[in-house]
Model the fold of this input.
Amino acid sequence: MGSFAEDELASLVNEGLAFDRPSAYYCTATIGRDWPDSRGTWYNYDRNLVAFVNENEDQLKVISLQAGGNMKEAFERFCNALIVLEKSIRKAGYEWMWNPHLGFITSCPSNLGTALRASVFIKLPLLSQDPRFPAIIKNLRVHKRAVPELQHDGVFDLSNQDRLGISEVDLIQQVIDAAHLLLRMEKRLRSGRSIDHLITDA
Done:
């Protein structure tokens, strides 16, 4: 990371192709020590597959980016990248840290299991104003984060809540199903119709 000029790094961070210096929170925990040594980023020519090395608590983070709503394509790209990476690691005499009970062993306990976070940006300006919105999100077992630069448009980063006790395929499907239902609710609200029966399904 130290080889980037400040403006170049800022541009890559904005594109999601690099990560910024650790926050004060991570520095207090000494995770940010020796910045920017021993840290790096890699991305492919299409800029839709990224790998971060030693970003905060993660030794390795692999990211598959996809414009539009085709999560299947993003997931396939992600899986193919991990297959190639695992072959390379095994060839060097190493392997992922994995436990039959806990799944993949990660630095951050919240990622134990699949260590997979699948997320989509979703625009819900009307539904997000409904007082039942937090409960709907909770019942669907997904997390929502406001997207700072798009917060005024009601755009959220929607991701899976579970990592442990669920397969990667089921996890992806959970996010897809949640996004589909939330969009149905948003469309009904836009046309002035009730979403009560959909909340029962949530």
Q: What stands out?
A: The mean pLDDT is 91.
